[in-house]
Each structure stands twice: as structure tokens, then as C-alpha cells.
Automatic annotation (TrEMBL):
Family, per entry: Belongs to the bacterial solute-binding protein 5 family.
Gene Ontology biological process terms in this record: peptide transport
Record carries keyword Acetylation: no
Protein name stated in the entry: ABC transporter substrate binding protein
Gene: gsiB_5
Keywords from the named record: Signal, Transport
Residue ranges constituting the Solute-binding protein family domain according to the UniProt record: 74-447
Organism name: Bordetella trematum
Top-rank taxon, per record: Bacteria
GO cellular component, one term: outer membrane-bounded periplasmic space
Length: 532
């Protein structure tokens, strides 16, 4: 019998105080000010500082990209009105006319060139945009609204790649640092809202861009409050101090449904939640022997050990009990329906006997010691997930030396410096196939080539790299899909990372405010409307 995990018993306690104190305060009149309670704050206002979701959630209200992504992860025209493949290594992009930055200056092809060049040059980025521009050989301004992109090799998904880059004003941002964006000096985009003020650790204030080229926002002013604690976010919504919250914990959904003046929204996500294991170094900082002593080798380098850890994990109970059904067990990079998905990679089965045999075969019959690291504010129940994995791995024969959870800004920075041995992370698949995720998470880290930008464990597999390189130049959709499927299979047969699940994400809003659920898990203002 599987014992309940600690998080289950704590679920009601986490929100009972919020429900008690705030239940009488739900009727909130419509107003020109929208206040959002967001679970995770950005580390910078520089939109090209980090590709992590918390930074993008702030940036996309102020800045825009050449393309946007619809609810099915298909690209649509954004600042780029159209594009044409002139030859396999030459693309021509035409911009929308009459788009202006927040300072009144017109958008031009030169601004796009500046932004694409800057994407790989931001100092100290924990999650750089270099992978998005890795294929570019050179950029050419044809006229104020037209540019040409010369690529190093055929790049069929070029628009998806460079479409990840936010477009800046050269006039406002040239020579400016990330700190200049944080202060607002350089925070000038073309988006539906303008930067007003950022108070790190507290809030971001925005004002509607009434000269926006697209559909205007419904709210004159917006305040995004950063509230990491789940119960505190719920209390803020129920008391009326915020109008909408993100990252509603699945264990809180049932209680929230009792309130008629609160609406819940949900979406299946393309984000993979996974456990990364330090497979690159001969010595890993948080690995010990079974007695807690330092080891002369790193067992995580052995694929049998990584496979054993995967077999220790009960994915079904995680999704059905820890997440109250708000998750789909995962065995690969992308969910079914995206390119590169493989029917040969079902979620790994729970197999404790098989795990112990693999440990014995690898030379660790008594197991070894491990510390698990996790964020505590990045996605719903992330710290509870860390505790659950620790219990499962302890039952599987490992010594768990500790579970350490941290605010995401601290955690993401430390993990990018390879400070951990076993750590929970996620990657949001933002394109229609597995290429983006595989290239960023499982391709060999190569800063110059722009691969492995999110490969924090420094996993490396030449077979995966070769298949991804072939897929990257394949214009034929069927051939590309087959190569991505093979790369997906090669990476996960080798347990480059340990896949856990694809989450179902929840938002809650007072009546009168609605959000369009989306696979990207975005709480951006383009998805939020006043309904009465």
C-alpha cells in the first residue's frame, strides 16, 4: 500500500485561514485598475536577460516578438507581418507598418537587427537567448520595414527560433545594461502596456499603451504583486486586494470551487517537470556514500543509476494524489500531439526491485547519499514534489541527506552554475515540436553554438547531438519529425533527465475578470479581460 504523502494532509490547512478571514469580502466592483497576484517574480526587467518563465511573464506585457504563439503552439504573425524563404539559407522578413515604441519612435528593421544581435550578448544571463539566434550568419537591413536573415545552414524553424527574442529599441537600449532596464531607463517596448515602476520583492506597475497597434488592454493601470505563498495569494484574491492569481495549487481547487464569486480556469501544459541529475562531473557536490561520507566517484554518471532512480518514482500517485489529478505522467520531452513525440517512450513504470538490481549491477548495492534541491515558488506544489521524491528514493534504497527548497530567482541562478547534484526543474515547450526542448535541455552545452542553454546537468550524448543537427536542417516535415523522435528516444533511453509529468495549471479570478487558459501557462495581459 502506498502511504499518503505529507502534502496531502497539509492541503486544507494551507488555505483554511485564507477562506475564514476573507469569505465576506468577495464582491469587488469593476475598476480601471487590475491587480494580479503572481507566484514568481522576475530577476530582471531586461527582457533578454533570462529565458525563464518568470522573466518572460513580466517582459511580454511590455515587449513583443516577431511572432506570437497560439493556443496550439503554432506561430502567428507578431511584429513580423510576413516572411519568405528565399533560399534554404536566406529569409526575408517584413515588419508591420505604423508600430511605435512607447517613446513614440517607429519600429524599424534596424531595431530587429539590434535585438537579435544583443540576444546572445547579455552578461551573466542564467538562461541566455543565445540558442534562439545560433543559426544566424548575418543580418541585412533592406529597407526600414524589411530585413534579411542569412543562416549558417538550412534552418526550417528559423521563425520559431528568432521569434523567441523580444524586440528592443536601438535608440533606447543601445549601450544600456540590465540595471538600466530595472530602473526603467531602457524599458521601452512596443507592447500593450508601458513600464511604470518595479519594486523587487514586491510589485511591478504598468500603464496601458493607448497607441498600441493591436487590441488595447481592458485596464488602464495594472499592478502585479509577487506573492510566493499559495495561501497568501488565495487570501489576497478572496479579500479583494487582487483580482486574479496564478499557480493555484491543485490541492486547493476543490475548496476554491465553493465560492460563487470566484471563477477557476485551467489548461493542460506543454511544460515538462523533470529531475535533473549531475551526470557530467566525476565528483558531484551533494553526493555521498551510504554512510554520508564523500565519494571518489559520481554514481550519477552511470546510466544504470539514473535509470534506477527513474524506476523508484511513482508518477501516477504524484499526479493523482499530490496534484489531485492535475498532471499527466511523462516519459519524454513533449506531450502527445507535438512533433517528435514517441509512442516508444511511455512513462517509466514504478519498479523498486528493478531499481535495486540496477544499483547492485552498477556497484552500489547499499545505495548512496543524495541531497535534492528544488524551487519553492516556481510551479504549483514544487516543494511538496521534492519531499515526495525524497520519500520515494529513500524507499528505493538511497540515503537522502536533505531536501533544500529555495525561491526560484536564487535557485535558477545557482543551478545554472552547476551547484547541485539532483534538482527539480521544468522546461516549457513553447513551439510545435520537440526541437526547442531537446536542443536546450538535452543537447551538449556549447555556448558558442547556442546549444544546451538550459542543460544545467551538463548531460552529453553524441547520438542525440547528431540527430538534432540533422533535424535542424530538414525542411521536409516528415523527415524532421522522424529525426526528432529518434533524438527524443536516444536521450530518454539514456535517462539524460528523469521525466516526471506535464502539469495542468490553474488560475482563479474574481467574477468580472477572465483569463484565456493557455498551454504556455502565461498570465500575461493579452489573455486577461474585463467581462462586466
Amino acid at each position: 500500500m502506498i502511504r499518503p504523502l505529507p502534502a496531502f494532509a497539509r492541503s486544507a490547512q494551507r488555505i483554511i485561514l485564507a477562506l475564514t478571514l476573507a469569505s465576506a469580502c468577495l464582491n469587488v466592483a469593476a475598476r480601471p485598475l487590475l491587480t494580479i497576484g503572481h507566484s514568481s517574480e522576475p530577476s530582471s526587467m531586461d527582457p533578454l536577460f533570462s529565458r525563464t518563465g518568470n522573466n518572460q511573464a513580466a517582459a511580454e506585457n511590455i515587449f513583443e516578438r516577431l511572432v506570437s504563439t497560439d493556443e496550439n503552439l503554432q506561430i502567428q504573425p507578431g511584429l513580423a507581418q510576413s516572411w519568405e524563404v528565399i533560399s534554404p539559407t536566406l529569409w526575408e522578413i517584413r515588419l508591420r507598418p505604423d508600430v511605435r515604441f512607447h517613446d513614440g519612435s517607429p519600429l524599424s528593421a534596424d531595431d530587429v537587427v539590434f535585438s537579435l544581435e544583443r540576444a546572445s550578448r547579455v552578461p551573466n544571463s542564467p538562461a541566455p537567448f543565445s540558442g534562439a539566434v545560433r543559426s544566424i550568419e548575418s543580418l541585412q537591413v533592406v529597407d526600414p520595414l524589411t530585413l534579411r536573415v542569412h543562416t549558417r545552414k538550412p534552418t526550417p524553424d528559423l521563425m520559431e527560433q528568432i521569434g523567441l527574442v523580444y524586440i528592443l529599441s536601438r535608440q533606447a537600449a543601445d549601450g544600456k545594461t540590465s540595471q538600466d532596464f530595472n530602473s526603467g531607463l531602457a524599458t521601452i517596448g512596443t507592447g500593450p502596456y508601458k513600464y511604470q515602476r518595479w519594486q523587487p520583492g514586491d510589485s511591478l506597475e504598468l500603464r496601458r499603451n493607448d497607441d498600441y497597434w493591436g487590441r488595447h488592454g481592458d485596464f488602464e493601470r495594472v499592478t502585479i504583486r509577487y506573492i510566493a505563498n499559495d495561501a497568501a495569494r488565495i487570501a489576497a484574491l478572496l479579500s479583494g486586494s487582487v483580482d486574479l492569481i496564478d499557480s493555484v495549487a491543485p490541492t486547493d481547487v476543490k475548496e476554491m470551487k465553493k465560492y460563487p464569486n470566484v471563477s477557476l480556469y485551467h489548461s493542460e501544459s506543454a511544460r515538462l517537470i523533470y529531475l535533473a541529475l549531475d551526470s557530467a562531473r566525476s565528483h558531484s557536490p551533494f553526493v555521498t556514500d551510504a554512510q554520508g561520507r564523500p565519494m571518489d566517484r559520481n554514481p550519477l554518471q552511470d546510466p544504470r543509476v539514473r535509470r534506477a532512480i527513474s524506476k523508484m518514482i511513482m508518477r501516477e500517485p504524484i499526479t493523482t494524489r499530490l496534484l489531485n489529478g492535475a498532471g499527466v505522467p511523462a516519459g519524454q520531452m513533449v506531450p502527445k500531439g507535438l512533433g517528435g513525440y514517441s509512442d516508444a517512450l511511455p512513462p517509466p513504470a514504478y519498479d523498486p526491485a528493478g531499481a535495486r538490481q540496477l544499483l547492485q549491477d552498477a556497484g552500489y548495492p547499499e545505495g548512496f547519499g543524495l541531497t535534492i534541491h528544488s524551487s519553492n515558488d516556481r510551479f504549483a506544489s514544487d516543494s511538496d514534489l521534492a519531499q515526495a521524491l525524497a520519500q520515494m528514493m529513500a524507499r528505493g534504497g538511497l540515503r537522502i541527506n536533505g531536501v533544500v527548497t529555495q525561491p526560484y530567482n536564487v535557485y535558477a541562478s545557482a543551478s545554472s552554475k552547476q551547484l547541485y547534484s539532483a534538482f527539480i526543474f521544468s522546461y516549457g515547450n513553447t513551439t510545435s515540436d520537440a526541437a526547442n526542448g531537446l536542443t536546450n535541455v538535452l543537447a551538449t552545452y556549447n555556448k558558442a553554438a547556442g546549444t544546451g542553454a538550459f542543460n544545467r546537468s551538463r548531460y552529453s550524448n553524441p547520438e542525440v547531438d547528431a540527430l538534432l543537427a540533422q533535424a535542424a536542417v530538414a525542411f521536409d516535415p516528415a523527415k524532421r519529425n522522424d529525426l526528432l523522435r529518434q533524438a527524443n528516444e536516444a536521450a530518454f533511453r539514456d535517462v539524460g533527465i528523469v521525466p516526471l509529468y506535464f502539469p495542468v495549471v490553474f488560475w482563479a479570478a474574481r467574477n468580472g475578470v477572465a483569463i484565456k487558459p493557455n498551454k504556455l501557462e502565461r498570465t500575461s495581459l493579452v489573455y486577461i479581460r474585463e467581462t462586466q
